[in-house]
Amino acid sequence: MKLLVTGGLGFIGSNFILKTLEKNKDWEIINIDDKLYGSNSKSLEKIEKSNRYEFVKGNITNKEILDKTMIKCDAVINFAAESFVDRSISDATSSFDSNLKGIFILLELIKKYKKRLVQVSTDEVFGSLDKGSANEIFRFNPSSPYSATKAGAELLVNSYFITYGCNCVITRCTNNYGPRQFPEKLIPKIILLAEQGKKIPIYGTGTNIRDWIFVDDHCDAVFNVLNNGKAGESYNISADNEISNISIVKKILALMNKSEDLMEFVEDRPGHDFRYSMDSSKIRSELGWKNKVKFDDGLKKTVNWYLSNNDWWKNIVKDSLNQTPWKN
Ligand SMILES: NC(=O)c1ccc[n+]([C@@H]2O[C@H](COP(=O)([O-])OP(=O)(O)OC[C@H]3O[C@@H](n4cnc5c(N)ncnc54)[C@H](O)[C@@H]3O)[C@@H](O)[C@H]2O)c1
Q1: Spatial contact of 186 and 223, defined as CB atoms under 8 Å apart
Q2: What is the pLDDT of residue 320?
Q3: 80 in ligand 1 pocket by Cβ < 6 Å?
Q4: Which end of the chain is less enclosed by CB atoms within 10 A, N or C?
């Protein structure tokens, strides 16, 4: 299998590439990434010289680069996206370009070369839920420019399946955490601010709820869907681990032996969704996937990883710990 991965210098893409090459000795991966905000070349340093890995610096909106690369591959997984909700609120241009124009170009090329595509999407397409969980046919109700462009991308993927019979499938996941996540995101931000003894900003009252999954479990699910998922279908991926932001901050401070006095409540993000929740029984019953990592174990692993890998984050940490990025 020769796989094209887009956005492989980001958090989930880099974990996916490392795990897939490690576990599948006859697989090769080409990674296209434009080294945008959120990427970190250090994540894949250890495989840079592998003859089963190739890096192409390029934007997925660039049809020429993508065309030359796609022709060499059997299938594509699209992780590339502008993934920062706060930044999409400040300026939605890059969300539109990467998340909508990017998938359009990818779809045109998988249609041309008849390749399989896995589109990696998010629970945020369903918007905030007071109660219950969204299954695969729940209505879309995105709140931010980020989630709206991800929802639009899903609709476009679906249309290429219906109209052209393209071999595409969608995965939709809850909040990921784990090693190699950019420090602007909640969990690494808490760890790195606490480590430096700095105040930890908590949006609003901190009661917003997300459903958290360890990144390895998400990667296993995407790998399973790539191999076994049915074209035209979507699969929700969640670990049934709903927890409020403030509980996460408290857990991390306890793990790091730091005082809760570091917590500081700040102005809430505009349009901040209160709760996301997804029902993932379809992927469990149809494809036999299940999550393996318990939240407390994964969190401990994540804290330890950041504390022992300061080479990975020391050059990017200053700007990414900015307290209210949507005001930039
Ligand atoms: N992080 C989460 O909790 C989460 C949850 C569900 C779904 N997702 C989805 O998973 C995917 C990966 O998320 P992540 O957290 O790893 O994001 P990330 O921001 O860490 O990484 C995104 C990567 O894509 C690259 N990229 C962005 N736009 C590009 C473009 N136009 N051309 C080429 N490269 C481009 C960036 O340089 C970066 O390396 C995204 O599609 C995101 O929507 C993320």
Answers
A1: no
A2: 66
A3: yes
A4: C
> Which residues are part of the catalytic machinery?
123-124, 146
Atom of ligand 1 at shortest range from CA of 102:
31
Ligand 1 centroid – CA 78 distance (Å): 9
For residue range 13-35, list pLDDT tens digits in order: 999 999 999 999 999 999 999 99
The pLDDT of residue 328:
43
How far apart CA 124 and CA 173 sit, in angstroms, is: 9
> Which residues are CB-neighbours of 248 under 8 A, at least 6 positions away?
186, 187, 190, 212, 299
Cα→Cα distances 245→79, 142, 248, 272, 309, Å: 25, 20, 5, 12, 24
Contact in structure between 98 and 61 (CB atoms under 8 Å): yes
Ligand 1 atom at minimum distance from 9 CA: 39
Residue 81 CA to ligand 1 centre (angstroms): 4
Q: What's residue 322's pLDDT?
A: 64
Q: With a 6 A CB cut-off, is 119 part of the ligand 1 pocket? A: no
The pLDDT tens digits of the residues spanning 153-175 come to: 999 999 999 999 999 999 999 99
Going from the Cα of 121 to the center of ligand 1, the distance in angstroms, rounded, reads 10
Domain architecture of the chain: domains with CATH:
2-177+213-237 (3.40.50.720)
* Spatial CA neighbour of 254 closest among 190, 315, 313: 190
The 10s digit of each residue's pLDDT in 69-85 is 999 999 999 999 998 88
Whether 313 is in the pocket of ligand 1, judged by its Cβ within 6 Å, is no
The alpha carbons of the chain give a radius of gyration, in whole angstroms, of: 19
